[in-house]
Design brief:
Structural class: alpha+beta
Number of domains: 1
Strand order of the largest sheet: 1-2
Bound molecules: zinc ion
Strand content: 15-25%
Length: 106
């Protein structure tokens, strides 16, 4: 039997694979709509996975303000892909800082 443990890329939590799952940085339906291959995956524990989706909901928006027309317009799928990428990086940074502040307060 192989070792089926996984480590969460965000918080470092090590568990059996049932609790640490492969997560697509760009949701599959979004990369599909943008005509791109599936994005890279990272291992995430249930907690971080849940938090990341909440994060995506607040960080990734469907509309963007266009200063030229002074109107909101729908984002293209390409723009959304970029949003998901930067939202993921921000999330990781945010969690890293949380980890640091926990360590420093000890
Ligand atoms: Zn985690």
């Amino acid at each position: 039997m192989t070792d089926v443990r996984g480590t969460c890329k965000v918080c470092g939590y090590v568990s059996h694979l049932g609790a640490v799952a492969q997560h697509h940085i760009i949701p599959k339906d979004v990369s599909k709509q943008a005509g791109m291959p599936e994005s890279a995956t990272v291992n995430l524990c249930c907690n971080c996975h849940f938090e990341l989706y909440t994060w995506y909901r607040t960080k990734v928006t469907d509309m963007v303000y266009d200063p030229e027309t002074k109107r909101f317009r729908d984002k293209s799928w390409d723009e959304k892909v970029k949003d998901y990428e930067s939202a993921f990086n921000e999330f990781k940074k945010y969690r890293d800082e949380q980890k640091k502040s926990v360590r420093e307060s000890k």
